[in-house]
Amino acid sequence: MLFGCSDSRLAAEIVFDQGLGDLFVVRTAGHVVGSEVLGSIKCGVSLLDCPLVLVLGHDSCGAIAAARAAGRETAEGILHEHIRHTVDLLLDRSHILSERVAVGRLAVAGLSYRLADGSAQLVASHGLIRAAVPARRNALPTALLGVPGNRGQPAGACSADPAEISNSGGAALLRTPNEMSFEAVGVLRE
Fold it and tell me: What angle do CA 71, 75, 78 make, to 5 degrees?
């Protein structure tokens, strides 16, 4: 599941090299959490058993520009602070999410995406996605597991065994949208 900004330049299916219907996506301007957003995310987690909630922020965001105009710190500093706050807020406001993270059935992570080069940086994470992957690996988009996109395969198909995915460690910048993976930024750690 992806919760991101409604900016049209940040189309989740393109960013993660997925087909229509492969991702559960919730979007608001500036990825601001309200009761409707929280309800949609809880629905995806509890009814669809989504093992991952990804908060995706981005540079050149109008909401961030408005904060800077009000005299706030650097755009990147505000963006990272907002992503971390959003991840924490989701867990604070939802017992469903926080309980699933606690038992290893869910991970909630935040990425900062750069529009210019398609790179992303891990900003925050709670929970270990590896615990949720083995039992549900065919339901996860392969881009989230660090393997090439799955276009041409059934929706959500996974072409790699998550147990074989190694951890490169650290919050490294990713190279291109099609190479986005949590493994590359350290979410799939032991």
Answer: 80
pTM of the model: 0.66
- Three-class SS state of 49: coil
Separation of alpha carbons 141 and 123, rounded Å: 21
Tokens at residue 68, please?
């800077």
Domain ranges of the chain: 2-134+168-179
The domain over range 2-134+168-179 is classified in CATH as 3.40.1050.10: yes
Reference 109, options 34, 183, 13; nearest CA is 183
Interval 118-162: pLDDT, tens? 888 899 999 975 554 444 444 444 434 433 333 333 333 222 233
Measured distance CA(91)–CA(157) in Å, rounded = 28
| Burial status of residue 16 (CB atoms within 10 A of its CB: 0-12, 13-18, 19 or more) | buried
